[in-house]
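Lecture 7 notes: from sequence to structure.
We start with the chain below.
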Amino acid sequence: MGRFARSWQLVKVCWSVLRQDKELVVFPIVSTIGVLLVTASFVIPGFFTGFWSGISENGANAGLWVLVVLFYLVEYFVIIFCNAALVSAAVVRLTGGDPTLGDGFRGAWSHIGAILGYAAIAATIGLLLQLLRERAGIGGVIVAALGGAAWNIVTFLVVPVLVVEDIGPVDAIKRSASLLKKSWGEQIIGSAGIGLVFGLLAVAVAVVGIAIGALALSAGIVALGVAFFVLVVLAVVVISLLGATLHAIYSAAVYEYAVEGETGAFDREMLAGAFRPKSSRRTR
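Predicted structure tokens for the same chain:
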């Protein structure tokens, strides 16, 4: 089976899990709303207080850097907390239960200290990578891209580890790296496949929708053209939310498969082609 075919199979299997618990998509929605609220709470007051105009006139100062660090920390915490809630609910389903939204949020809340600690680490890495992109030229962009990719690979299973195992954020990162080495090595077929499929789907919808909308506008049918543009935005948002949900379900399933050797919701032979677990013991 080729990579694209395998990716499509993984998407279908993840979709079957989501069909059993459609409410799982609520977690990415809450995350998106949370990020928008956090961004607004940091940006809007600056306009009314004149903070941003002062920055543009006098340049960056200590106050700006404090604000940037706090923004990264709060935003990462919101994202990781909601992702942990989704993974908590997905783990319940993958281990034979019937999760609710409350199960997910309770699972994340019970590990809020570790999640906050991991958010601080991830926010620091994210800020450093962003500084590299902005201040180190093309070399910094390349290093940041490679560093970001490596970080994402190493920490792919951190959230499932945090919500299942009673360990801190640093140990969770080490555990994630250990599971990565044991179960997949360098093969990230499933994660990349889900991103590829939904990325292509979003691009296709955007291109077709914008083209139809532009034709409608050129023909003088303004209402239809505007309607198509609105539908394109909504469709891309829905596709992104579904992709994020399936990606989180997949990470939970990979974790369960890596530590237990199997996951009932996933076809064993298909996953075995991409992931080769060597241990079925959880470390507590």
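Points to note: DSSP finds twelve helices and no strands in the chain. The chain has a mean pLDDT of 78.
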